[in-house]
Structure formats: C-alpha cells, structure tokens
Amino acid sequence: MRIVLDANVLASGIFWAGYPFRVLDLWAHDRIVVLASELILREYADLLRDLGREEDKEHLADSWVSFIFHHAVLIDVRSRVDACRDPDDNKYLECAIDGGADFVVSGDGDLLSLGSFGGIPIVKPRRFVEIVG
C-alpha cells in the first residue's frame, strides 16, 4: 500500500506515539510504502530537526531523517494542484496523484476537509490503521 504522509503525522508518531506511531511502525516493518517529493522531504527534515532540538531528542530526529531519506520513495512531481485551503498542503496532493498513492494520511483539517482528491482517500492515522489492520 502506497501512502503520502503529512509532516505533522510523521512528527507526532516520532515524538509522541499514538496512532501516528502505529502508521510509522507499519512503514518500519515494510507493510506500507511512503511516497514523498523533494518538497515534502525538505519539510520532514526541517520539522524533525526543529522538534528534535526543542524536545532535546536531536539523535532521535537525526535517526529518523536518515531512515526517511533511505526508505521513502521519491516521486518526481509534475502535477500542479490548487485544491487545498492551505496552499502549502497542495504538495501532498500533487505527490499522491503523481505517485499513485492509495491514501493520504493526515491530521490536518485543511486536507481532511477534502475527504478525497483524485479518487485518493484522505484519512486520519486512526482510520488508516483500522483499514490496514
């Protein structure tokens, strides 16, 4: 199963657990594939490094940045989308479309308000874990 994961779900799973952690656990155990564009990878790295400093967990952040860069499937995004209330979130939709994602997993209200995009469901981490099992 191929997914696009928003940066807030990624950070929540790394630093605070819960359902976002369970999504990352699925990834770490090769049960899902996470798709990312260069823009998304840059956002992941910046957010994790900032939170790593704030939470005094820089080693954890650096380890995850390394994991992400080695395990995420890089998508060469060519689509341009203007569908989200927050224009910065369009990058997730673009990656999902061009990468042939099965889901976008997000906790972001701007993305979730769409329900789906291009036939790709946009779901919260809890719902995604329920679907995948």
Structural class by secondary-structure content:
alpha/beta
Q: From the alpha carbons, calculate the radius of gyration and give it in angstroms.
A: 14 Å
Q: What form results from the Cα inertia axes?
A: globular
The largest beta-sheet arranges its strands as 3-2-1-4-6-5
The biggest beta sheet is recorded as: 6 strands, mixed
- The succession of helices and strands, N to C, reads EHHEHHEHEHEEH
Number of E strands: 6
Q: What is CATH's topology name?
A: Rossmann fold
Mean pLDDT over the residues: 95
As a percent range, the share of helical residues equals 40-55%
Q: DSSP helix count?
A: 7
Strand content: 5-15%
What is the domain tally? 1
Indicate the multimeric state.
single chain
The CATH class turns out to be: Alpha Beta
Which consecutive residue ranges, at least 5 long each, have pLDDT under 50? none
CATH superfamily: 5'-nuclease
Instruction: Please tell me the CATH architecture by its name.
Output: 3-Layer(aba) Sandwich
Q: Cα distance, first to last residue? A: 12 Å
Topology:
Blueprint: E1 2-5, H1 7-15, H2 19-28, E2 33-36, H3 38-54, H4 58-71, E3 73-74, H5 90-99, E4 103-105, H6 109-112, E5 116-117, E6 120-123, H7 125-132
Parallel strand pairs: 1-2, 1-4, 2-3, 4-6
Antiparallel strand pairs: 5-6
Helix pairs in contact: 1-2, 1-3, 2-7, 3-4
Task: Provide a concise account of the structure shown.
The protein is α/β, with parallel strands linked by helices and 133 residues long. Helices cover 54% and strands 14% of the residues.
